[in-house]
Structure formats: C-alpha cells, structure tokens
Amino acid sequence: MRFVMIFCALLASPAAAETMTCRITAKHSCDPAGGCKKLQPGVWNVLDVARQTYARCDARGCDTYDASFSPSGAFIVIDVPSRGMVAKVAADKSSFLEVATLGMTALNSFGSCE
Fold first, then answer.
1. Which of 25, 30, 82, 114 has its CA 20 to 30 A from that of 106?
2. What is the rounded end-to-end Cα distance, in angstroms, of the chain?
3. What percent of the chain is helix, strand and coil (3-state, nearest 5)?
4. Distance of alpha carbon 86 from alpha carbon 12, whole angstroms
5. Which helix (H) or strand (E) holds 112?
C-alpha cells in the first residue's frame, strides 16, 4: 500500500511528466531448439507514464506503443499487449527488464533507467 501511495505521488509530480530512458546492457534470445544466446544490445526504451506509452528505439528511430503501467511492490510493471511484451522497472530506476516474444522466441533484455 505504501508503494502505491509513493507511485501515485510520483505520477502527480512534475518530474513524472518527463520520460524515462532505459538503456539495455545485456540481451538474450531464447528458443526451444537452441536455448539462450547472447545478443549485442542495440536498442533503448523510452517510457512515458503520463502518456501511457512505451517506445523501443534504435539507430533508425523509435516505434511507440500504448502501454499500461502498474505498481507491483518495488517495481512498476509495464504491459504492451499489442507487441507481446512486458517490462519491469525498479521504482528507483536502478534495474530494468524487458521480455518480448517473436513466435516461440523470447528476447530478454536487462539494463537500467534514468
């Protein structure tokens, strides 16, 4: 309950109107046939809680999607159902996790936000 109150206070503050940029530092591709393999990170994410959007960006630009943001303990859970993607960011932005699916392959990305 305490986190929900803090989360709501953050949403009401001017700083929350700003976006969070999450940098990916490690990425893995996992599938039933080949297991998991390391990939070179080449994307970052821009989260906008106020606008309820999630953008995946690379050298060619950003694709922005509608998202829902929900507090869960010490994390904010981001759901992007149109892309088969879910992410979590620590409330202090120190850690970030994204799981995206492509067919039967799961792409797992890790990093932090600012």
1. 114
2. 25
3. 15, 60, 25
4. 24
5. strand 105-113
The answer to whether 42 touches 59, Cβ cutoff 8 Å, is: yes
Query: What is the rounded CA–CA span in Å between residue 35 and residue 30?
Result: 5
The residues that bridge with 85 in the sheet, in sequence order, are 80, 100
Q: Report the C-alpha dihedral over residues 58, 30, 66, 54, rounded to 10 degrees.
A: -40
Nearest to 46 by CA among 77, 24, 30, 71: 24
Distance of alpha carbon 98 from alpha carbon 28, whole angstroms: 11
Asked if residues 46 and 21 have their Cβ atoms less than 8 Å apart, the reply is yes
Whether 48 contacts 19, CB under 8 Å: yes
pLDDT digits (tens, 9 = 90+) for 25-54: 999 999 999 999 999 999 999 999 999 999
Its pTM stands at 0.80
